[in-house]
Specification:
alpha+beta, four-stranded mixed beta sheet, about 30% strand, elongated, Endonuclease/exonuclease/phosphatase domain-containing protein
């Protein structure tokens, strides 16, 4: 028995650093958001604001994945300057 699965992009979730789409498989649906956050802190904050706003509207199960360009530890920093203020 073959299962059918489809995905559609969500116009309500348009953002330059993320794309969201709904996956439908039979009677089950869920939302996936793929993120590539800007390395610049001030621009990266925009995608976090978008995700917070989007999270308030999504009622289906939600998977968020991608490259958030967030540095948590100084050992993750290669080149440039590490700032504790930027670490989450």
């Amino acid at each position: 028995m073959a299962l059918s699965c489809s995905a559609t992009t969500s116009d309500f979730a348009s953002h330059p650093q993320a794309i969201s789409f709904t996956v439908v498989e039979g009677s089950k649906s869920w939302v996936c958001t793929a993120v590539y956050a800007n390395p610049r802190v001030e621009l990266r904050q925009q995608v976090w604001a978008h995700l917070r706003e989007l999270g308030g509207r999504i009622t289906l199960p939600w998977l968020v994945l991608g490259d958030f360009n967030e540095i948590l530890l100084s050992t993750e920093c290669h080149g440039g300057r590490f700032s504790m203020a930027w670490a989450s």
